[in-house]
Amino acid sequence: ANEKLLQANGCTACHSVDKKLIGPGYKDVAAKYRGNKGAEADLVKKVKAGSKGVWGDIPMPPNAHVKDEDIKTMVQWILQLK
């Protein structure tokens, strides 16, 4: 269900589970933020507002059209990946 949510919101155009496309793979994101207690809130903000510079020069556009609860669900799923 969570992967379908990622597809439905266009995330998979730039991200995949285990390899870099335009943006980092979800497993790389999970590894980078593992052990960071504020990771979920930080990532929810970055997904909603957009982000640049964390993974290189290509910016992630804002995703203001995505519901906050959907972003939170997707971020929680990504952060549990190993």
What does the model show?
With 82 residues, the chain is mainly alpha-helical. It contains four helices and no strands. It has helices at 2-8, 26-33, 39-49, 68-79. The two termini are 18 Å apart. The mean pLDDT is 96.
Task: Name some characteristics of this structure.
mainly alpha; single chain; 46% helix; 82 residues
Topology overview:
Layout: H1 2-8, H2 26-33, H3 39-49, H4 68-79
Summarize the structure in short:
By secondary structure, the chain is mostly helical. It is built from 4 helices and no strands.
Structural class per helix/strand content?
A: mainly alpha
Q: What is the H/E order?
A: HHHH
Name the poorly predicted regions: none
Treating each run of at least 4 consecutive H or I residues as one helix, how many helices? 4
Ends apart, CA distance between termini: 18 Å
What's the overall geometry? globular
> What profile does the largest beta sheet have?
none
The Cα radius of gyration reads: 11 Å
What's the number of extended β-strand segments?
0
Instruction: Give the amount of beta strand, in percent.
Output: under 5%
Mean pLDDT: 96
Helix content: 40-55%
